[in-house]
C-alpha cells in the first residue's frame, strides 16, 4: 500500500531481459536507507518487489502480465521513474490509498501552463473513466492527484510547480503514456452497488412478509 506521495525520482541503470521476466536496476539514494530484499516499491505507480540492492541502486523483476498492463516494457536506460516505499502504519497518509495495481494506461492529450499551475489533459479508457468522480483522487504514474475536470473520455489534473518538479511529469510531453490507478475506495463502493440485488415484491412474499 502506498500514498501517492513520491519520495524520489530514480534513473534506470540497466534492463535485462530474462524470459519471461525483465529485470530493472534503478539508481536512487533516499529510499535505500532502510531497504530490504522483498520490500514493495512503487515504480511509476507499479508495485514491484526488491530482488537485490546495494549502496546506490536496487533491482526489481517485471513479469509478463505487468509488462502487458503497463509501459514498463518500453522504458530505456536513462529514463527517470517515480519511486515510493510502502506506507508505514505509523506514517502520514499525505495522498490517498494507492495499491500499485495499475488499472490501465492513459495518454497525455494536452499540457497547458497558466500563472501558477500546469494543467494536463489525459485520455483514459472508458472503464477507468467510469471509476472517476470530479474532485476525486487518481494516481497518475504513482502520483496522488485530484480529478479537477472530468470529460467524456478524458480528465484534467492541475499541478503546482513543486509537484511537477518533484516527479517525472516535468519530463512528460503530449502523446506520452501514463499509468492510471483509480481510487480503491470508489472501486469497493462500485462493486457493492453492482452486486446488490434489487428487492422486489415477489422476494418479500417468498420471505414471508
Automatic annotation (TrEMBL):
Lumazine-binding repeat residues: 1-96, 97-193
A biological process term (GO) from this entry: riboflavin biosynthetic process
Annotated Lumazine-binding domain residues: 1-96, 97-193
A UniProt-annotated Pfam family: Lum_binding
Known EC number: 2.5.1.9
Any GO MF annotation of the entry: riboflavin synthase activity
Reactions listed under catalytic activity: 2 6,7-dimethyl-8-(1-D-ribityl)lumazine + H(+) = 5-amino-6-(D-ribitylamino)uracil + riboflavin
Pathway: Cofactor biosynthesis; riboflavin biosynthesis; riboflavin from 2-hydroxy-3-oxobutyl phosphate and 5-amino-6-(D-ribitylamino)uracil: step 2/2
Domain of life according to the entry: Bacteria
Alphabetically ordered keywords of this record: Repeat, Riboflavin biosynthesis, Transferase
InterPro entries xrefs: ATP_synth_asu-like_sf, Lumazine-bd, Lumazine-bd_dom, Riboflavin_synthase-like_b-brl
Role noted for this protein: Catalyzes the dismutation of two molecules of 6,7-dimethyl-8-ribityllumazine, resulting in the formation of riboflavin and 5-amino-6-(D-ribitylamino)uracil.
Protein name: Riboflavin synthase
Native source species: Staphylococcus agnetis
Lineage of producing organism: Bacteria, Bacillati, Bacillota, Bacilli, Bacillales
Amino acid at each position: 500500500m502506498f500514498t501517492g506521495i513520491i519520495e524520489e525520482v530514480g534513473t534506470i541503470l540497466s534492463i535485462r531481459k530474462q524470459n519471461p521476466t525483465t529485470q530493472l536496476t534503478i539508481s536512487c539514494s533516499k529510499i535505500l536507507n532502510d531497504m530490504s530484499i522483498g520490500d514493495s516499491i512503487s515504480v511509476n505507480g507499479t508495485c514491484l518487489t526488491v530482488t537485490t540492492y546495494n549502496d546506490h541502486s536496487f533491482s526489481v523483476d517485471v513479469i509478463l502480465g505487468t509488462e502487458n498492463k503497463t509501459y514498463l516494457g518500453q522504458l530505456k536506460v536513462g529514463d527517470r521513474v517515480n519511486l515510493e516505499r510502502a506506507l508505514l502504519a505509523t506514517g502520514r497518509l499525505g495522498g490517498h490509498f494507492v495499491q500499485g495495481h495499475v488499472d490501465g494506461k492513459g495518454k497525455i492529450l494536452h499540457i497547458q501552463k497558466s500563472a501558477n499551475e500546469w494543467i494536463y489533459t489525459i485520455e483514459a479508457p472508458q472503464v477507468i473513466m467510469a471509476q472517476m468522480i470530479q474532485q476525486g483522487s487518481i494516481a497518475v504514474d504513482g502520483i496522488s492527484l485530484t480529478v479537477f475536470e472530468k470529460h467524456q473520455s478524458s480528465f484534467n489534473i492541475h499541478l503546482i510547480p513543486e509537484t511537477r518538479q518533484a516527479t517525472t511529469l516535468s519530463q512528460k510531453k503530449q502523446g506520452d503514456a501514463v499509468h492510471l490507478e483509480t481510487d480503491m475506495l470508489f472501486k469497493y463502493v462500485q462493486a457493492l452497488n453492482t452486486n446488490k440485488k434489487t428487492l422486489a415484491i415477489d422476494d418479500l412474499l417468498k420471505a414471508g412478509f
